[in-house]
Amino acid sequence: MTAKATLYGIPNCDTVKKARRWLDEHGVDYTFHDYKKAGIDADRLKSWSKTFGIDKLLNTRGTTWRKLDDADKQDMTEARAITLMQTHHSIIKRPVLIAGKHKLIGFDEGAWQSLL
């Protein structure tokens, strides 16, 4: 991986912790973007939605999603999902790794290894 990477996530997420540890162990130069501190802009989420698909980007398995009102979860459009992700950062699938033209979502050691 030649371009400096940016890892997006929240620091207390176990998967993000694994990803950070893996990047550190492999000497990958990266910046960590903490959603809780820095937020995330709608344009970036729209771009990721085009790359990964909104269904993959929206984390519907976590407790934050389950705690949302049913009304918030119905009739989900990309625009509504993006608004929810900006408000509830924990419903963004984690981590997202951007390194130049490479974009990965979730932590899959094999996929990440192929970038090195």
How would you characterize this protein structure?
- The structure is a single chain.
- The protein is of the alpha+beta class and 116 residues long.
- It has a single domain, classed as Glutaredoxin (3-Layer(aba) Sandwich), CATH 3.40.30.10.
- The chain contains 8 helices and 4 strands, in the order βαβααααααββα.
- A 4-stranded mixed β-sheet has the order 2-1-3-4.
- Helix 3 crosses helix 7.
- The mean pLDDT is 93.
N-to-C order of helices and strands: EHEHHHHHHEEH
When the domains are counted, the total is 1
Oligomer category: single chain
Poorly predicted ranges: none
CATH architecture label name: 3-Layer(aba) Sandwich
What percentage of the residues does DSSP assign to strands (E)? 15-25%
Tell me, what is the CATH class?
Answer: Alpha Beta
**CATH superfamily name?**
Glutaredoxin
Fraction of helical residues: 40-55%
Would you tell me the structural class of the helices and strands? alpha+beta
Average pLDDT level: 93
Which features does this protein show?
116 residues; alpha+beta; Glutaredoxin; four-stranded mixed sheet; 4 strands
Q: What's the arrangement of secondary structure elements?
A:
Layout: E1 5-9, H1 14-25, E2 30-34, H2 35-38, H3 42-52, H4 54-57, H5 63-67, H6 70-73, H7 78-87, E3 96-99, E4 102-105, H8 109-115
Parallel strand pairs: 1-2
Antiparallel strand pairs: 1-3, 3-4
Give the structure's gist in a few sentences.
By secondary structure, the chain is an alpha+beta fold. Helix content is 49%, strand content 16%. It has one domain: Glutaredoxin, CATH 3.40.30.10.
